[in-house]
Structure prediction request, 1293 residues.
Amino acid sequence: MLKYALIPLLPFAGFLIAGLFGKYLKERAAYAAVAGVAGSFILSVSAFIDVLGGTIIDENLYSWFAIGNLTVNVGFQIDQLTAVMLLVVTTLSTLIHIYSVGYMHGDKGYARFFAYLELFTFFMLVLVMANNFVLMFVGWEGVGLCSYLLIGFWYEKKSASDAGIKAFVVNRVGDFGFLLGMFLIFLTFGTLDFTDVFAALSGPAAAQSYMLLGAEIGVMTLISLLLFVGAMGKSAQLPLYVWLPDAMEGPTPVSALIHAATMVTAGVFMVARCAPIFSLSPTAMTTVAIVGGLTAVFAATIGLVQNDIKRVIAYSTISQLGYMFLGLGVGAFAAGIFHLTTHAFFKGLLFLASGSVIHALSGEQDMQKMGGLKRKIKVTHGVFLVGSLALAGIFPFAGFFSKDEILWSAHNAGEVGRVLWMLGVFGAFLTAFYSFRLIYLTFYGKSRIDHEVEHHVHESPKVMTIPLVILAFFAITIGWIGMPGAIIPHANLFGDFLAPVFPVLEHGVANHGLERWLMVFSVMVALAGIRLAYSLYVKNTSMPDRLARSFKGTYNLLLNKYKVDEVYNFIFVDGLVHRLARFLYNITDVKIIDGAVNGIAGMIRRTSEGSRKVQTGFVQEYAFVMGLGLVVLMGLYYVLK
Amino acid sequence: MLHKAIFIYFAAVCIGSALLMITRRNPVHSVLFMLLLFFHIAGLFVLLNAEFLAAVQLIVYAGAILILYLFVVMLLNVDRESAAPRANRYWPWLTLFGLLISAEISFLVLRGSFPADAGQQPMTLAVGSVRDLGIELYTKYLVPFEIASVILLVGLVGAVMLAKKIKD
Amino acid sequence: MPSTLQEFFTLMTPIYPEVVVITVALTVLLLDLFVRKEQKSSLGWYSLAGVIIAALATFKLMGVTGSFFAGTFLLDRFSVYFKFSFYVACSLGILVSINYLKIEDIHRGEYYALMLFATAGMMLMASAGDLITIYLGLELMAMSIYVLAGFMRRDSRSNEAAIKYLLLGSFSSGIMLYGMSLLYGMSGTTNLAGIHAFLRGADLANPMVFLAMIMLIVSFGFKIAAAPFHMWVPDVYEGAPTSVTAFMSAGPKIAGFAVLLRVFSYALQPLQHDVTTIIAGIAVLTMAVGNIIALSQTNIKRMLAYSSIAHAGYALVGIAAGGPEGVASVMMYVFIYAVMNMGAFGIVIMLRRSGERGEEIKDFAGLGKTNKMAAFFMLIFMFSLTGIPPTAGFMGKFYIFKAAIQADMVWLAVVGVIFSAISAYFYLRVIMVMYMSEPQAEFKLATAPSLAIALVFSLVTVIYIGVYPDNVLNFARASIAAIL
Prediction:
């Protein structure tokens, strides 16, 4: 058990060292940090091998606290799902730690940065290893906290600290849903341990239903929807996605680790972990699928016209998360997790590579001021291309396998599924287009770089490029572990490995012929997207401007991200929040604190000021008060006897 | 009966001299009333067959400590004019308060009763003797006895510490 | 009667830890003569080593249970738990003192000796099996602390603190002796087991029994600073040297609770019914007085003094709840309180630089900007004192209130929670001042390795218990069998 406990504890130790002694260690703090995650990675591999050998761990370390009949334990569950997540989290975390050694070099918050990163890794591991909802929630909040800290890492920059606050507020909405879901689970089953809850699902408690607004809603549906609200917040789904693009204000390795590869996928993981609950509610499953499908296309359309290199990838992340939920929603849980895995690698790669571009251009993020970088930063260009091909879903890159498995499952999922499949394919077209628009604008064509910057363009140091190359290798190959039956029969190692943890939802028989045709079709669609990007941004470079002018309305709408931020600002921030704040101000400040007439706070304050005067400093009076106490207590004899 | 009468005499003088002690303006008088008080307390010890304690009471308190007090008071030479007022201006109320406490305690004590067998067994003649007391202190009450010596040491250290001249 | 040296040593085994502490104290007094003024801190480290040796001795004695020296001295898990708490309090007290004494220019060997004497007194209180041992242990502790409170002889506030504490302490001792003599008069014994046996067979309606009980409640209430016997606390805490205040708010308070538990949960256990009612009332009054008056304090030491009163109130809730859960929760709580409070005082001490007192809450202004680490430590300690998870303060309060609810005293738990909520105001105000206000002047903290060790230890303990309360809780639970 100690071995498993060490998986999260090693990064925690790294956090302590970097956090407490960072001042003295300076840049050496990074060694402790890297050692922490690397150790955790090795142990994760070992845990994975254990699981492969059939050892499933579900053990309580100790009981944290107990209220009435609710006992909350600190305990770990390591099954197939957790083992996969452990590998993904620790691999990415290790590589990104190494990359950051170079990327953050010279930053004055160097040790602090690594401390936060370690703390994040710790909480993420707690999240995926938890064997009950409460501990999972602790990890969930913990990664959130680290995320705010890291988004606002350069807190002197106002946009950075604003972005941190935005992420915090939007996530509160989601977390509230998660909490309510947890309460409802406890109310229904009287326990919060995964194993016990899932075992009780076949019992009578799960069949209850509530009357809500005149409609009868099954308790499973209600729980699933509430949990999904939590997942929507953390995994940036419609309509709670608005914080993620702004989160790009954080340092790029943070975007790669937290806002692409791991934390944002926590929602996907949570839904997958609760698959037994979700699968009991067709309504909830359909909701998940529809939200996922819509988000996939919606975010992709915004990504078409953004000019900030990191923002394009951020919208692409939201869109890809949508695909994962689409997969989960149509019952292809393993496919969703598969996409999570491949996505972690190629999206982590894209972020780190874009970091390398930004690094090369001394901090420039606007793609309109790039171009022609292909020859200057060769390694970065190469890995960027690999990442984009994987993202676009071109055979045989990783994204192809996972995305196709999702699309195929959607296609098999009835009427709604068919519509979602169409959305998904359209999204794939958009994805291919915007990812190659990015490639062409950045690496090809004429250079639009500022002259001053141009002199300094340089390839990143080895400590940054080596992790990139490793990630690129995975971005090509990682998909092969989930080989669809249509290409090589019975070779879907990934799906077989995860099969024991997920309930089976049968959607008809395999039809390899049709599946093969659909694959070819979606690759064709993706190639069409790339081809369109090529003609617009390489061959006919004046075309985009003309298009933008002729479709001014649409273009601006997309460029302004459908004005969702503005709408939210108008409704919530300006309208509700300000009004509420003014209301509270009027009540509390004016009536209670200034007026201090009837308010409880004022009363307590005055009592305080008044009773303070009893303390005169005369020792006789103190003795007198003691005597008074004695008299009263002795007098109690008449009351008590 | 006689025993009781003697007890009442000693107790009454104790209370009376204590009251006089705290109400005198002249500190020398106060100390002298305290001496009276200590003598009568020693008398109470004799009544309880605790001759050794009575002797110690006289030798240590009356003989040593009070004489020291007297020396200090006389050396300080507090003149009558500048002596502190007898009591502060709330004294009638405080007296009433004191009476209230006494009344409550008396009420509870008088309504209550000691168990019939209490105080019967230990009062053998031997207990009062120095030898028996010594044996008790060095066997049964060894730990408390030693603590008492440490307390005295702390008192000593503290007195020296606080009273020593501050050198700068 | 021991006839050989070997027998003598065997006889002394149970009080070995006390002997170690007192011996170290005596040698400190001697060594003090030979140590130059600049090197007095070596005496501090020497005393610390003594405490650690005593802790090891206690650890060795953990398996031994029994009553020694004719019942005047008890060795059981209960006393062991409290002794370890005293070691922690004393060690932290020594660590926060070393640098402070230098700054105040009162670095003298007697200081450490007195601290060790006080600790020995507390240890004897925890192990007392007899009213006489309780009284003498308590006087040993109190006497040492009277002197410590007046240690800054040039400062009139310190003198005033010492004399006030001495006068009121003697007053409370008088009341205690009155109660004890009544108990002795009735039962014919000063032994706690004997008193317990007597009360089991006695007529509990006897007003004299009630009177004795009240007298003991009043005098112990004075030691733990329960209202209305708390009046000395703010003045003494403010006037005493800050390092003494830190020690005083932890050690004697824990010792007071040790005796309170030993006497009321064990010796006077047959009176449980009345005790519960009275203690519950005192608990409410104490929480009210402590929390409400703390609101309007501007001096951090006075604020922490009222906070100390309030925390005594929370712990009393646990005593009122009674039963194994109640007792265990109180034991855990006083330990947690001691650690987090000494941590907070450690930060206050850091602000004391020669020339500046640094005791006003406004002196904390801008600490969050000028010294992030110190501000962060203070933040955690304030969170813990408020009772915000995941700090130890939360766990402590949680188990106290849980015990109250289990004892069907839901109202008491509710009152406690309400006052906790009020307390957030003045604890969080310190945080506000640290992080929201601009620093007033150039800031240089008085840091030292000894202080850093104490602070890190406190912080780690506070977080550790907040996340993993089981160790301490189980230790406390395993320790209560002796008195229940």
Remarks:
- Residues 588-598 of chain A have pLDDT under 50 and may be disordered.
- DSSP finds 27 helices and four strands in chain A.
- The radius of gyration of chain A is 28 Å.
